[in-house]
Specification:
Blueprint: E1 2-17, H1 21-30, E2 33-48, E3 52-56, H2 63-70, E4 78-83, H3 93-96, E5 99-103, H4 115-125, H5 130-143, H6 159-171, E6 177-181, H7 189-206, E7 209-213, H8 217-223, E8 226-231, E9 234-240, H9 241-248, E10 251-258, H10 264-267, E11 272-277, E12 280-286, H11 290-300, E13 303-309, H12 313-323
Parallel strand pairs: 3-7, 3-8, 5-6, 6-7
Antiparallel strand pairs: 1-2, 1-4, 8-9, 10-12, 10-13, 11-12
Helix pairs in contact: 9-12
Length: about 325
């Protein structure tokens, strides 16, 4: 069963063009001209119910615009979208009960009031019966380890506690589809881990579909088996994290601890040398030459230890963004 179906989704914004000088300013007020900015271009993908998918892309790649179209906040310029069986931009009550949108840089809790007061407002908005409201708050409070925090004014909570309380508020109506835009933004390492653990448990308990954007690659690697990669408004990759490495990172890293030191001219015969520290050497070796190179190292040189790893996912994605390589 498909929870999210996106076909040829596009969003074009008309942007006013102003020429320099006084004449340009007058013309800008009296007779404006516009140019089209293509924020999202012909994006298509399907996400199954209960799937957790990472949504990657540099700033301005079109991720947030896509999320807002999926949540019904922005009307698409073209294409078709269905989320949980609904057309998002119609903003029907039945649709709004099935989704939630959490943005790490936005907050819905009232700053000077206890979080519980805002939760009661949400409970009333979604018409949650009092008994069910207490059960859900209790369950989510336990999952998020927020015991004793919901009666304090939101401004007195730590950043991590506020983010957890925001998640609680966003999930109180138990949505089927979660759109999460940088949910761990600005949190310390411990708080990030706590939020990831909660999202994993929530997904497993309720089989919720999750589309997650994050600049913290640890969020993606911890939660997502599949990733979508946006670049300049286009979807350039849809597949597994391992597949992303294979497609965009033609090298693997070989770390070798030798039993003795070797001269540079000898080591350079086995691959691109990335680092040398005493008898430890890191090589970059093309994937298609990996087996042959490792065999040569083990048979021709005195190797004490050898490990082969993929480059960090941050490095791979960063390379795509910087070079624009999408083929």
């Amino acid at each position: 069963m498909q929870s999210i179906v996106v076909q040829d989704l596009s969003k074009v914004y008309p942007v006013a063009v102003k020429e320099p000088g006084l004449q340009g300013t007058l013309r800008h007020f009296l007779q404006r001209t516009y140019r089209d900015v293509k924020a999202v271009q012909n994006v298509s993908f399907h996400i199954a119910a209960g799937e957790v998918v990472g949504f990657l892309g540099a700033n301005g790649a079109g991720k947030t615009t896509t999320l807002k179209m999926l949540a019904g906040l922005i009307h698409p310029s073209g294409g078709q979208v269905r989320v949980a069986g609904h057309v998002p931009f119609r903003r029907q009550a039945a649709f709004l009960r099935k989704i939630t949108l959490v943005m790490g840089q936005k907050q819905q809790l009232l700053w000077d009031l206890p979080a519980m007061d805002s939760l009661r407002i949400n409970g009333a908005v979604y018409n949650i019966p009092e008994r069910e409201f207490r059960l859900r708050v209790g369950e989510l409070t336990e999952m998020l380890t927020l015991e004793g925090k919901l009666t304090q004014p939101v401004r007195k909570l730590s950043l991590g506690e506020r983010m957890k309380a925001e998640l609680l508020a966003a999930l109180l109506h138990r949505p089927q589809v979660l759109f999460l835009d940088e949910p761990t933004l600005g949190l310390d390492v411990n708080a990030q881990v706590s939020v990831r653990d909660f999202l994993r448990e929530y997904n497993q308990r309720y089989q919720a579909t999750v589309l997650l954007t994050s600049h913290y690659m640890a969020d993606i690697t911890a939660l997502c088996r599949r990733v979508l990669l946006m670049h300049t408004g286009q979807l350039v990759y849809d597949g597994s994290l391992e597949g992303l490495l294979q497609r965009f990172a033609p090298y693997r890293e070989v770390k070798v601890d030798f039993a003795q030191e070797y001269p540079q001219e000898v080591l350079s015969n086995y691959g691109e040398i990335k680092e040398v520290i005493g008898q430890m050497v890191r090589f970059l070796v093309r994937r298609e030459k990996l087996t042959k190179t490792v065999t040569r190292l083990l048979t021709e040189l005195d190797v004490a230890d050898l490990t082969v790893t993929d480059p960090p996912i941050e490095q791979v994605v960063g390379q795509v963004f910087q070079t624009g390589v999408v083929s």
